[in-house]
Amino acid sequence: MTAVQAENGRGPDGATALPCTQPRPRPRPADRDRYTIGEVSEHTGLSAHTLRWYERIGLMPHVDRSHGGRRHYSDRDLDWLDFVGKLRLTGMPVADMVRYAELVREGEHTFAERQDLLRAHRENVRSRIAELRTTLAVLDFKIDSYADARRASERN
């Protein structure tokens, strides 16, 4: 099973999961579906403060608690956090991530709106990738220029 794939073939948002061949950066504790905030922090690289903030702003679905009030995260929560991490890497604004989380909680009737939100963000990502490719070409040109200049000065 992968970061974005559940046993039922659905991702953490209920949509069909994509196969992911990249291994997790940090393995989950084996044979468990209950994790403390410290274990989740270690697995995800997010601080406990960030995890609590995600919950407070509505980015995390309701996290189960023990009788003593301690958070107990599930594999499904970890899948969700993996997906949120991917959205963060793409530069999705927190407000859009929160809106997406709200739509997920509202149920399947929001699939079209979720799809629209992700499509719009995909276009932003593609635009940024194009800008980065142009910037990379400039860097490559400058690096090659310096290499040429160094070779020329070494010949003299």
TrEMBL record:
It holds the Pfam family MerR_1. InterPro entries: DNA-bd_dom_put_sf, MerR-type_HTH_dom, MerR_fam. CDD domains: HTH_YyaN (cd01109). Keywords: DNA-binding. Residues 1-33 are annotated as: Disordered. The keyword Cell division does not apply. PROSITE patterns: HTH_MERR_1, HTH_MERR_2. Residues 34-103 form the HTH merR-type domain. SUPFAM superfamilies: Putative DNA-binding domain. This is MerR family transcriptional regulator. It comes from Streptomyces thermolineatus. The lineage of its organism: Bacteria, Bacillati, Actinomycetota, Actinomycetes, Kitasatosporales.
